[in-house]
Design goal:
- Belongs to the OXA1/ALB3/YidC family. Type 1 subfamily.
- It is a multi-pass membrane protein.
- Interacts with the Sec translocase complex via SecD. Specifically interacts with transmembrane segments of nascent integral membrane proteins during membrane integration.
- The protein has 264 residues and is mainly α.
- Helix 3 runs antiparallel to helix 4.
- The longest helix has 27 residues.
- The protein starts with a helix and ends with a helix.
Length: 264
């Protein structure tokens, strides 16, 4: 019994219901296109349900950006003062500044709430593609997904090595697409909308490396995960790119390169 089971079973029910609905509309239940539509519907529903947490995260980023100059001044004022009374006053003032600008002590909560859902969806697609029954995704739907193929390459197939060049073409194409979408998201929308001023150099360096690291990570993972999971990554990465582009264009974090582009 896993802590993610309630989430994966709920997502399995949505995936199975979507598959049944599409089959009832006349689509081939064993078609890769049908399963791609199923995955797309689930991703759209899940990411739409998580939008309130995304909005909260954007607001917190804006609040932290507004508070940052005041907190920096506060740190300079108390630099070198290590007595207990000074430390207590500094912490009191930091709390006051954060409260004035609406910075929550639970700023990471939106990510923590979303993470189990992302992990649950990842494990659901991976397990079903591996032939494992998960909740409402019983033997029938699991067998159907295993029978589906893209250009003759099964959605349950794994790895870059397979039978014939078509296998490599499909897996390479999907992995490169997912990696390219991830790189573009991080490089052109997330990085310019991230405030690095005042961030420790190690963290700033990690942020600057994130576009390449995310793309390389997907390319490496593409060699071991099932094709169905690559389809999910492409759909999910497409949503993430669009969402990140919208945030950077219309709700950029004050003081970032993205904000300067909008006001230029």
């Amino acid at each position: 019994m896993s802590l993610l089971d309630p989430i994966t079973h709920a997502l399995a029910a949505v995936l199975a219901a979507t598959h049944d609905a599409l089959a009832a509309l006349g689509t081939d239940p064993d078609s890769a296109l049908t399963w791609l539509l199923c995955v797309t519907v689930v991703v759209v529903l899940v990411r739409t349900a998580l939008l309130p947490f995304v909005v909260h995260g954007v607001r917190q980023a804006h609040a932290a950006s507004r508070a940052r100059p005041h907190l920096r001044d506060l740190t300079e004022r108390y630099r070198g003062r290590t007595d207990a009374d000074s430390l207590r006053r500094m912490m009191d003032e930091r709390r006051r500044v954060s409260a004035e600008h609406g910075v929550s002590r639970l700023g990471c909560l939106p990510v923590l709430v979303q993470l189990p859902v992302w992990l649950g969806l990842y494990h659901l697609i991976s397990d079903v593609a591996s032939g494992t029954v998960v909740g409402a995704m019983g033997a029938g739907p699991v067998s159907s997904l295993g029978a589906a193929s893209v250009l003759g390459v099964s959605l349950a197939a794994r790895g870059y090595s397979g039978v014939g060049p078509t296998h490599l073409l499909v897996v390479d194409g999907l992995a490169l697409t997912a990696a390219g979408l991830s790189y573009a998201t991080q490089r052109f929308f997330v990085a310019p909308n991230t405030m690095l001023d005042g961030m420790p150099e190690a963290m700033a360096t990690a942020h600057r490396m994130m576009p390449a690291l995310s793309a390389v990570g997907l390319l490496v993972a593409g060699g071991v995960v099932p094709v169905a999971l690559l389809l999910y990554w492409v759909v999910s990465s497409t949503w993430t790119l669009g969402q990140s582009a919208a945030i950077a264009r219309w709700w950029p974090t004050p003081g970032t390169e993205a904000a300067r582009r909008v006001t230029a």
